[in-house]
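Long-time lurker. I teach an intro course on protein structure, and each term I like to show students one example going from raw sequence to a predicted 3D structure in token notation. This year I'd like something fresh instead of my usual example. Would anyone be willing to generate the tokens for the chain below so I can use it in lecture? Attribution to the forum is fine with me.
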Amino acid sequence: MSSTTDVPSLVDRLRYPLEGAGRDDLVRRARASLHHDGAVELPGFVTEPAVALLAEEARDLAARRTWRSEGVGTAYLAPPDPMVPSDHPTRHLGRFATGVVPYDLFGVDSLIRQFYEWEPLRQLVEDIVDRGPLHPYGDPFGALNLAVMENGDELQWHFDQTDFVVSLAIASATSGGRFEAAPRVRTVDDERFSEVQSVIEGRSDQVYVHPMVAGTLLILKVGTPCTGSLPLKGTKPAWWPCSPTTPWRADAARPCCTRPATAAPHRFPSLLTTRRIDSGWRGPGR
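-- Reply from a regular --
Happy to contribute to a lecture. Here you go:
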């Protein structure tokens, strides 16, 4: 998609100032939310007219370049452990079904890509996550993904193996599509399998629901939560650009790969997440 749209005009700068004292206050409040809840949700970060432009591009990309995958997996993104009882959470298999458009299929004139590569956005995320300098993720496929979720699609509860996740909602499901996260369900010293099991079985009261309405920018501190998503029903897709892994990395030494969660304590993911799409697509905004 060729676009002459000015990238800064995509953002509601009155609501989310990117300079001056207003920006300082935005960063302060977002940091506090990230620290307390393990997530910061910025609804309306992208304006409604901008969402329509991004959705138009996403529709074209999704129709021509989506790679689909479907199957079952554990919350630990690893094979089931045969050495534990059958009802152990490391053996629980949940369904995933989703589509993705990888970074290398976004043209240089892509508005979605330009937004991701926009330096003020990187600087804002850097200041909010407060982990020191962030560097572009060197993976030519995974740096930026467009997640395409259609009728019945979902992601099983899982621990992402990254420092943080940034997502921008650009199409809304008419039903479902909620992003659910359970912060701090485990620690480096305690796997807390019983708590993980309660989340997977829907018995936990520690689950946060993020509606992810079109235009919302969501930052998840994966070092503190487990995530996933509820099934989508309908005939049209919902889209989440930015990355389901990490679009920017806090360490420059390994720009092209993510390390296993056990490699360093600060990368031990304790955020359990899920997402499901229950019904359709609401229109040009997600």
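Some talking points for your students: The mean pLDDT is 80. The two ends are 19 Å apart (CA to CA).
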